[in-house]
Amino acid sequence: MTTTGNARLRAARQGLGLRSQTALADAVTAAARDAGLRIAVTPRTVRRWESDTPPWPQPEHATALELLFHRPVVELGFTPPWGDDLREPAPDENPPRRRGGATHPRSRPLGQLLPASVATDYAAATVAYRRLYWSVPAPKLHRAVSEHADLGVDLIDQLSGSARSLLAAAVAESSLLSGRLEFFDLQKADLAQASYVQALQAAHEAHDSLLGAAALAHMAFAPAFSGDSSRAEESRDRVRAARAFARRADANDLVTAWLDAVEAEVETRFGDTRRALQLIHEAEQRLMDSDDVDTPAWFDWFSPERLAGFKGNTLMASGQGRESRETLEAALRTLPDNAVKQRSILLADLAATAVIENDPERACEHLSAALDQLGETWYATAMDRVKAVRQSLREWDSLPSVRDLDGRLYDWRTTVNSLVG
User: Fold this and answer.
1) 169 and 208 in contact (C-beta within 8 Å)?
2) Alpha carbons within 13 A on the beta-carbon side of 256
3) What CA–CA distance (Å, rounded) separates 43 from 252?
4) Can you tell me the distance from the alpha carbon of 167 to that of 214, in angstroms, rounded to the nearest whole number?
5) Which H or E run includes 210?
6) How far apart are CA 210 and CA 420, in angstroms?
7) 3-class DSSP state for residue 390?
8) Residue 169 to residue 24: CA distance in whole angstroms
9) Are 306 and 341 contacting, i.e. CB atoms less than 8 angstroms apart?
10) Mutual orientation of helices 209-219 and 189-206 as an angle, nearest 10°?
C-alpha cells in the first residue's frame, strides 16, 4: 500500500513550480536569508517534512516556510506538538520570568500585538551577538547580550503564532549566550544559573526541546566546577535531563557527542576518569558517523577539535601525561584560527602535561603562549587553568623561566583583568 506523505506541503511546493525537494530546500533557505535568518535547509529536512509523520519545523524554518508560501505552517500539513490548545494564558497563568525569579509585567494588553517582523529583527540581532562572542571582550558584550535577552522576554507576549515561537527561540539562545559569558568568561556562576533558567523557560515557550537540552547541559557545569563532591548527583541529574530533552528533539550525532563530552567533563571533575574516557570514546564514534545534518546554527561551540580538548584534559587527570600531550597537540594543530579562547585552554592543558612529564621549561613556554592568547581575548576559565599550572610549578620557583613567567602573569594588564573579569 502506497502512502501519500504530507500531501499539503507537496501540493504547495508544486503550486510554486518547485519540482523537487531540493528546489524547495533552496527556496526556503533563500526566503530565510531575505528575512535575515541565517539557516540552511537541506533536502533531507524537506524529505522529513513531506513524510507521513512530518516533524514540527524549528521556529526559524517555520517562519521561512510561512514567508515562502504566505500561509501558516498548520495549513502546510504540520501539527503543533503542543496540541490544539492555542489560547492566550490568563494574566496570572504561567507568566514568563526574568532572571532572578521576578515576573515581568506585560507592557501591552493582550490583543495589541506587535508586527511579526519584530521577531525576525530580534532574531537577526541575536545572530549578530552569537558571532560577536568569538571576538568582542566579554564584559562589554555581556552587557549588551543580557539586555537583549531581557528585551526579548518583555516582547514574547506581544507576538502570536510562529512569530512568537521564533522570538522565544531567539530569547532562549540569547539567554544561553548570556549564561555562557557569565560562567566561562566572567566566572559569575549565580548569574549564569539564572540565565540558563531563563533560556529553558524561553525554549519551552518556543517548543524547542533542543535549546532546552542545551540549557540543561550547561547547568551541569556549575556543580561540577564547584569542587564540592556532594554536588555530583546534582550535576549528573542535569545531564540526564539534557539527554531526555535531546532524545525528544531527535538530536543528531554532533549534539549527542557534545552531551557525551559534557558528561565526561562532569565525571572527570568528580574523579571517575574511567567512565569519562568511555564517554569520550562513544563521542568519537558518533562523530565518525556524523554528517552534521540538521545542526542548528546556534550550536557553534563544539567540534572534533574541542572534543579532543575534553579528551586531553581527562587523560591528564588520569595521569596519562604523554597520551594527553599527543592528543592536545593534535587538537591544537587543527584548531581554527578564530578559536582564540579554546587555544588558550589547550595551551594551559599542554603546560599541565609538561609538568606531569617533569619539563618545567616547556610548561612555561606553553603558559606564556596561553597568556599571549589571553592578552588578545580574555577568558577567565583559561586563566584559572594557567594559575593552576603555575601553582604546580612551585618546586621550580627558582628557575629563570618560572620567574619570567611570573613577570608575565602578574603584569598590569593581566592582573587587572584577573581581578575585574
Assistant:
1) yes
2) 23
3) 16
4) 17
5) helix 209-219
6) 34
7) helix
8) 24
9) no
10) 160
Q: What is the pTM of this model?
A: 0.72
Structure-block grid coordinates of residue 118: 519584530
* Count of residues making up the chain: 421
Per-residue pLDDT of the chain (421 residues; tens, 9 = 90+): 455 788 999 988 988 889 899 999 999 998 888 776 778 889 999 999 999 889 888 877 888 888 888 888 888 998 876 544 333 333 334 444 445 444 443 343 444 588 988 999 999 999 999 999 988 888 889 999 999 999 999 999 999 888 999 999 999 999 999 999 999 998 899 899 999 999 999 999 999 999 999 999 999 999 999 989 999 999 999 999 999 999 999 999 999 999 999 999 999 999 999 999 999 999 999 998 777 677 888 999 998 988 999 999 999 899 888 899 999 999 999 888 878 888 999 999 999 999 988 999 999 999 999 999 888 888 888 888 999 999 999 999 999 999 999 998 887 667 666 655 5
Residue 112 identity: Q
Q: In angstroms, rounded to a whole number, what is the distance separating the alpha carbons of residues 176 and 178?
A: 5
How far apart CA 153 and CA 254 sit, in angstroms, is 29
| DSSP assignment of 278-296 | HHHHHHHHHHHH---TT--
Whether 226 and 180 have beta carbons less than 8 Å apart is answered as no
Name the CA dihedral angle for 98, 101, 102, 105, rounded to a multiple of 10 degrees.
40
Q: Where are the alpha helices (DSSP H) in 249-339?
A: 253-269, 273-289, 304-317, 321-334
Q: How many CA atoms lie within 13 A of 234 on its CB side?
A: 13
Contact status, residue 305 vs residue 255, Cβ threshold 8 Å: no
Q: Can you say whether the dihedral through the CA atoms of 134, 136, 142, 148 is positive or negative?
A: negative
Instruction: For the chain, give every domain's residue range.
Output: 1-78, 131-207, 208-302, 323-421
Rounded Cα distance between 152 and 126, Å, is 10
Residue 342 in contact with residue 308, Cβ under 8 Å? no
* Identity of the residue numbered 144: A
